[in-house]
Design a protein that fits this description.
Two copies of one chain form a homodimer.
Chain A (H helix, E strand, L loop, with lengths): L25 E7 L3 H11 L3 E6 L3 H10 L4 E2 L3 H5 L6 E5 L5 H10 L3 E5 L6 H14 L3 E4 L1 H4 L2 H11 L6 E9 L14 H4 L7 H12 L4 E9 L12 E8 L4 E7 L13 E6 L2 E6 L13 E6 L3 E5 L7 H12 L7 H17 L1 E2 L2
Chain lengths: ~350, ~350
């Protein structure tokens, strides 16, 4: 498989826009099981964060990481980082089922936690994370990258906040991904570890629904999973979809799958269609199909007054990271509330638990 | 409301491609309650059909129709058409809840019936239609225009038949429509008459699922309806969506709504995303958002070998109509089987009956 899969190299670069000076916000990385760790660290560094140290039990993963971020201290143990008083936040991209346990250790050590999505895989882990957040007052923040680290997604949020499409009534998202099975670690195909497709890549979708539609709570009205064409990986869900209904009546449908074909220019033609009472927004997040080398950042707006195309590539940036740093320093919740992060986690686990297996 | 709604003027013109000579296939029109009758008659005429006569109790509707199709005989009653031995088929676009009753009279008179979609609104009507088809051997065919009279939809079917995307695993469709309430008749807002949104415009979607995915039977896994923003029309569903699972494991999601905003260049940005094991197809049926005057017929194919854009506007035509004429003459089922037409009707009624009202 010549084509790259997603997470292996997903690390968007934005315009550096530091909110703090050097050394004012020091963080570390623990657990490099998913390539999202690079995007997470990039984002924090561009916002002014100082990456001090890194730990992973696998020396090869550390080699690659330190080559990417030269000058980072190669910690000899997780404990070395957890006991470092200078470090405010630990970023981690552990195996999905181990993300919560790492977070509990990080928060017990008096630090904020910033984990790759999905942030956890069971409702028991969720309860433990909530209890630890209450007990310590520390943050359990989540890298929902398909909104936080995608310029079209940031811009769509700004359009909605300005009232461009009225009240949001439905968020429809598709999150196709290229499997690139040869480049995936073993845990990726073990359901207990990756959590199932609706928990894993579905978490991006549910978080976007809560955000765009202003939903505080929701129910999973229907969800389903399938393994349509990968009998060699019997625990892989290669397809999943779900319908949710929010507490304000807004609804969501999303589909996630591992069927991006090799002929496509990008690892996935991720789309988002946000329907409002006064118009709609389409995002073509990573590419514009049929236009080679089209790049990402395509936003289409139609409302009562206009039909407009925006190319926001390189123009919007990723305000989440600076907001997160300031939230950690000031104990505010402007980047994302803890309640929101946990609600998305809860719903993606519930969508997975309730899912009907159709194939 | 300056913008036109859909059905009022939906009558695609294709390349005339007659399959019979003048007078070899004579048909008539009864019931002009929906503008689709113009597309239905156009399609048959372009395929060589001879439109002989027309009847509707409303003289104004007859005036408009005869102006559009000069030379058509203005029948004085429905009976005049039903007793005309020269007429092989009757096309009708009655109020949705009355389409079945008209069909029963047409078939009892020994003629084939070609009705606008949705072809009926209740399971009792479906039983009566099936019984009449068995009893008379006549056809109860349906103008599922969003596939039959849309070139991208015809072409997508050809690509699938050629194996371009492998086995179809999901059909995802959106069918937004502009309401244009001022131009709609009263019956359009009375649920008993229009049948509900999933039955009405949802019927297009379900028919496409059965066709593209090669599904003979399916279950409605979940469906929902809402009136999000039209309290002045309490019986209008302005939103509906549904998930179906086919007997071969393929699945469908569709959304239909009446929220096309005035700023959009077209009455609806109808899309179809067909996901296969080896690739996918996107259709932008009526427009390409962001490109003014873009017209319809946009098809995007991605598979293991390529990522390709096709503009099929004016290139594919509408083979259904010629096939239907030959089916009537030869008693074959190449245009559409009776079983398929009835199955789509059954499932759209079931989707409506089962629907959860979320707002």
């Amino acid at each position: 498989m010549a084509k790259t899969s997603d997470g292996m190299n997903f690390a968007p670069k934005g315009k550096p826009n530091p909110v703090v000076g050097k050394g004012e916000f020091v963080f570390a990385a623990i657990a490099l099981d998913h390539g999202h760790i690079y995007g997470m660290c990039n984002g924090l560094i561009e916002a002014g964060g100082t990456l001090k140290s890194v730990y992973d039990p696998d020396p090869k993963k550390l080699d690659v990481f330190i080559e990417k971020f030269p000058g980072t201290i190669r910690a000899r143990s997780e404990e070395e980082i957890l006991s470092d008083k200078e470090i405010t936040l630990v970023a981690g991209a552990a195996v999905t089922s181990e993300r919560c346990a790492l977070g509990l250790r990080v928060m017990s050590a008096g630090k904020d936690y910033f984990t790759d999505k999905a942030p956890l895989t069971t409702l028991e882990q969720l309860d433990a994370a909530k209890a630890k957040a209450r007990e310590t007052g520390k943050k359990y923040m989540v890298y929902y990258s398909e909104r936080l680290h995608v310029e079209s997604a940031v811009f769509a949020g700004q359009l909605i906040a300005e009232g461009a499409i009225g009240r949001v009534i439905q968020v429809l998202g598709t999150g196709p991904h290229r499997l690139g099975a040869a480049g995936r670690p073993d845990w990726f195909f073990i359901k207990e570890k990756y959590g199932g497709i609706l928990c894993d890549i579905g978490s991006h979708q549910i978080e976007q629904f809560l955000f765009y539609a202003g939903v505080k709570d929701a129910r999973v009205a229907y969800s389903q999973i399938a393994n349509f064409n990968h009998p060699e990986y019997p625990e892989l869900d290669d397809f999943g979809d779900a319908t949710l209904v929010g507490d304000n009546g807004a609804t969501q449908y999303f589909r996630v799958d591992w069927f991006t074909p090799d002929g496509l220019q990008m690892w996935g033609d991720g789309r988002s269609f946000i329907l409002g009472t006064e118009g709609f927004i389409e995002q073509r997040k990573y590419m514009n199909i049929g236009q080679k080398g089209s790049g990402g950042g395509h936003v289409y707006l139609a409302n009562q007054y206009e039909e407009t195309y925006y190319n926001v590539n390189g123009k919007v940036g990723y305000p989440f990271f600076g907001q997160l740093i300031l939230d950690c320093l000031n104990r505010t919740e402007n980047a994302m509330t803890q309640e929101h992060a946990f609600k998305a986690a809860e719903l993606c686990v519930k969508a997975q638990i309730q899912a009907v297996k159709i194939k």
